[in-house]
Amino acid sequence: MRSGKHYLVTELCRKLGIEPHILRYWEKEFDIKPIRNSAGRRIYNEAQLERLQLIKHLVRTEKLTVAGARRQLAKMSSQPSESASADHRQTLLWLKRELLTIKAQIEASPGH
């Protein structure tokens, strides 16, 4: 269930394309602290989703180890704005490639 820009584990994992045990591991390794609802379920905000998308990109696409991804995230957060802009461009280029891939898959699907 989603209320505003908040996600439960199931929805977040579906958006990220990962299993819940990977999410729990990344929470621990990258110090991601979701809030919990009254039933004790973890709730993630949009910023946490974006951070997890970046982690997934670093680990799965860039093939960094968890330690390497942590170093890259630390480097990205401490960079001067010009370097950060270059990283943002890289991220945007990656997102563009991903969207083009999805578009091609949709267009190639039967019934489209």
Short description:
This protein is mainly α. Helices cover 67% and strands 8% of the residues.
CATH topology grouping of the largest domain: Multidrug-efflux Transporter Regulator, Chain: A, Domain 2
Given this structure, which CATH class of the largest domain is correct?
Answer: Mainly Alpha
Which outline best applies? Answer: globular
Give the averaged pLDDT, no decimals. 88
> From the coordinates shown, what is the CATH architecture of the largest domain?
Orthogonal Bundle
Largest sheet: 3 strands, antiparallel
Q: Gyration radius, to the nearest Å?
A: 16 Å
- Give me the number of helical elements: 5
Order of adjacent strands in the largest pleated sheet: 1-3-2
Order of helices and strands: EHHEEHHH
Structural key phrases:
single chain, mainly alpha, Multidrug-efflux Transporter Regulator, Chain: A, Domain 2, 2 domains, 5 helices
Descriptive account of the structure:
- The protein folds into two domains: 1-78, Multidrug-efflux Transporter Regulator, Chain: A, Domain 2; 81-112.
- The protein has five helices and three strands.
- β2 (35-36) and β3 form a beta hairpin.
- The longest helix is centred in the last third of the chain and has 28 residues, at 81-108.
- The two termini are 29 Å apart.
- It is 67% helix and 8% strand.
- The radius of gyration is 16 Å and the shape is globular.
- It is mainly alpha-helical and 112 residues long.
